[in-house]
Design goal:
Elements lengths: L9 H11 L59 E7 L11 H8 L3 E3 L2 E2 L5 H10 L3 H4 L20 H7 L3 E6 L20 E5 L11 E4 L2 E4 L4 H14 L8 E6 L14 H4 L51 H34 L6 E7 L4 E2 L5 E2 L5 H4 L3 E4 L7 E3 L3 E2 L3 H9 L24 E6 L10 E6 L2 E5 L5 E5 L17 H14 L14
Protein name: Sulfatase N-terminal domain-containing protein
Organism: Nocardioides koreensis
Family: Belongs to the sulfatase family.
Length: 531
């Protein structure tokens, strides 16, 4: 691709058009919030020179020497550990969750550089309990070879390590895709003291899920997020919580797509559409509560010029007006479905406070991957753009700064070793992640994070491998096609700099890092942080 220094970069031109329309563009403000009525989403215009300008001393990939971590102080007594995850929630969705903002962001630390190294359901969740990247834990995708529940060896995971350290271990909600099928309906993975997992395919029936209750299947006629909230309160209210420290993972299905169908769902409104946009199902009290919500008007929405995109074919399509409207409906329902999770977070914290457990409990709130509806002409997940690989992430607990933000890059493979360190437990599988608590206050903003994606329908050959290093994203496929983005000057990832000679030095370094760490394992995976 020739250097386009003679014309205005696409991200800047798009931002200008948005500004002329009466909006502002790039870090997101609170914008539309529940209870304030219909408002357009507001953004801040991205500032900075064109992507094709000559690099300067601030454009190095890994500047300076690795930082020294703050000393990690082991808690005096073993803390309780609570992991709350949502399914397919994006960073931009969090502004609509007031309880999460108050109870997690204001009372804890927001991790602005949360990352999913393989941003799709099964690999992300397997990383949360294994501490490994997908090429090591083996659950590479959702279906087929290397996909789903059957691909994950779960006999040596975080709950096993914690049980050996004296913990009760509890699970509620969605496990790995395919769990509950082909004879696994009553299977309870090793290491869990109390197991309440939905079985597929009922996991995606929001109003009639079946739960494996410690080896016995029970069907509920209750909205799933409310059910998971009830089960959470029951577990936390149990007098047994006073006898031993505990680890609880609550994995909500919302806002993942699921049924039953509603009259305003795209597949119902457009029965002749062969590929309607999939939607989720909000709780009855939240239906149409965000019917005023529009799609974001950011420069990456429905990207017109995708000639520089070398890897993803779907970005080269044109999204027609019908599918744009379907995407708007899908986004509206996603935010509505998250309202029940938001209330559940408040109820959970309230229960911890009333039972006297809150002060000795670490709480992490995060998602398995991000999600797009129209950005780069895509809908869904899996790919390497920041809106997908970037995930919401918050932590609160003893010693965690309140109301602060951290730039430290944290992946969903880091939480298993972090929780193990807090508990004084020893991982017995080779973990790729690291204990991130010592890095949250160090102003660390860069770390080499290997990323990879695999075919949804199965296969062990990656669609892409690459690295995210601070503001740099680099990916390549097996044919050698590559994309390079420098988000400090191109926050919307509109201009691929792979063939820009001014960034050739950075391209070479990122390519070298990709090939060095694509198959990394354990201590061979990058663990240094940089400012």
């Amino acid at each position: 691709m020739p250097v386009r220094g003679s014309r205005e970069p696409r991200w800047l031109a798009a931002a200008a058009m948005v500004a002329v329309a009466g909006l502002t563009v790039a870090g997101c403000t609170s914008g539309d919030t529940q209870g304030q009525g219909p408002q357009r989403e507001r953004h801040v215009v991205p500032k900075g020179p064109a992507p094709v300008r000559a690099p300067n001393q601030h454009d190095t990939v890994l500047p300076g020497k690795p930082l020294t971590a703050d000393a990690f102080t082991q808690p005096r007594r073993q803390p309780n550990l609570l992991m709350i995850t949502v399914d397919d929630a994006a960073q931009k969705d969090m502004r609509y969750l007031p309880h999460v903002q108050h109870l997690m962001a204001d009372q804890g630390t927001t991790l602005d550089n949360g990352l999913a190294p393989t941003p799709i359901c099964v690999p992300a969740r397997a990383s949360l309990v294994s501490g490994q990247y997908s090429h090591n834990h083996g659950a590479l995708t959702i279906n087929g070879a290397g996909g789903g529940f059957k691909a994950f060896e779960d006999e040596d995971t975080l709950p096993v390590w914690l049980q050996r350290a004296g913990y009760d271990t509890m699970f509620i909600g969605k496990y790995l895709n395919g769990y509950g099928e082909d004879g696994s309906e009553t299977y309870v993975p090793p290491g869990w003291s109390d197991w309440r997992a939905t079985v597929d395919p009922t996991t995606y029936n929001f109003v009639r899920p079946t739960v494996n209750d410690n080896g016995t299947d029970r069907t509920y006629h209750q909205y799933s997020s409310d059910l998971f909230s009830d089960l959470t309160v029951d577990m936390l209210d149990d007098p047994a919580r006073e006898r031993k420290p505990w680890y609880l993972w609550v994995n909500y299905v919302a806002p993942h797509t699921g049924g039953p169908d509603a009259k305003d769902d795209p597949k119902v409104l457009h029965p002749d559409d062969e590929s309607p946009i999939k939607t989720t199902t909000p709780a009855p009290e939240d239906e149409n509560s965000f019917d005023w919500l529009h799609l974001p008007r950011t420069p990456d929405m429905f990207e017109e010029d995708t000639s520089d995109k070398a890897i993803i074919r779907p970005v080269h399509r044109t999204v027609d007006s019908v599918h744009r409207q379907e995407m708007r409906e899908a986004r509206q329902q996603r935010i509505e479905a998250l309202q029940s999770v938001d209330r559940a977070v408040a109820r959970t914290v309230r229960t911890l406070r009333s039972t006297g457990q809150l002060d000795n409990t670490y709480i992490v709130f995060t998602s398995d991957n991000g999600y797009v509806l129209g950005e780069h002409n895509l809908d869904g997940k899996l790919w390497y753009f920041r809106e997908i690989a970037g995930i919401p992430m918050y932590i609160r607990g003893p010693g965690v700064a309140k109301g602060e933000r951290s730039d430290a890059p944290v992946t969903n493979a880091d939480w298993a070793p972090t929780f193990a360190a807090l508990a004084g437990a020893k991982p017995t599988r080779k973990v790729d992640g690291t204990n991130v608590l010592p890095w949250l206050d160090t102003r660390a903003a860069r770390r080499v994070v290997p990323i990879e994606g695999y075919p949804v329908q199965g296969g062990t050959t990656p669609l892409y491998t690459g690295v995210v290093v601070g503001p740099w994203t680099y990916v390549e496929n097996k044919r050698g096609r590559a994309e390079l983005y420098y988000r400090n000057v191109d926050p919307w990832q509109l201009d691929n700099l792979r063939r820009d000679p001014r960034y050739h030095a950075q391209y070479k370094q990122l390519r070298e890092l990709t090939r060095k760490y694509a198959d990394c394992a354990g201590s061979g995976c990058p663990s240094d942080f940089y400012r």
